[in-house]
């Protein structure tokens, strides 16, 4: 686990080391939902945050 600061609410969250952080910065689950709702309202494309993990 590592601490990442959410770019929206500014809180620190424990994030898995394997989690991919987008270039704009980490977005916590709560803000992610809000951002998705906002994007839908403005008719933007929904970003796919779920990445397929190809394990060995
Ligand atoms: Zn947040």
Briefly characterize the structure:
The chain is of the alpha+beta class. Helix content is 23%, strand content 14%. It has a two-stranded antiparallel sheet.
Small molecules bound: zinc ion
N-to-C CA distance: 21 Å
What portion of residues belong to β-strands?
A: 5-15%
Report the C-alpha radius of gyration, rounded.
Answer: 13 Å
Total number of helices: 1
The helical percent reads 10-25%
Question: What structural class do the secondary elements suggest?
Answer: alpha+beta
> What is the 3D shape?
flat
What order do the helices and strands follow?
Answer: EEH
Strand tally:
2
**Main sheet properties:** 2 strands, antiparallel
Number of domains: 1
The poorly predicted ranges are: none
Lateral arrangement of strands in the main beta sheet = 1-2
| Mean pLDDT metric | 83
Task: Give an account of the 3D structure.
The protein has 56 residues and is an alpha+beta fold. The mean pLDDT is 83. Strands 1-2 form a two-stranded antiparallel ribbon. It is 23% helix and 14% strand. It has one helix spanning 29-41; strands spanning 2-5, 12-15. It is flat. Residues 6, 8-9, 11, 28, 30-31 line the site of zinc ion.
């Amino acid at each position: 686990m590592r601490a990442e600061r959410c770019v929206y609410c500014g809180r620190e969250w424990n994030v898995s080391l394997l989690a991919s952080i987008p270039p704009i910065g980490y977005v916590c689950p709560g803000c992610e939902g809000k951002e998705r709702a906002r994007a839908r309202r403005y008719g933007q494309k929904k970003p796919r945050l779920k990445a397929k993990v190809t394990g060995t």
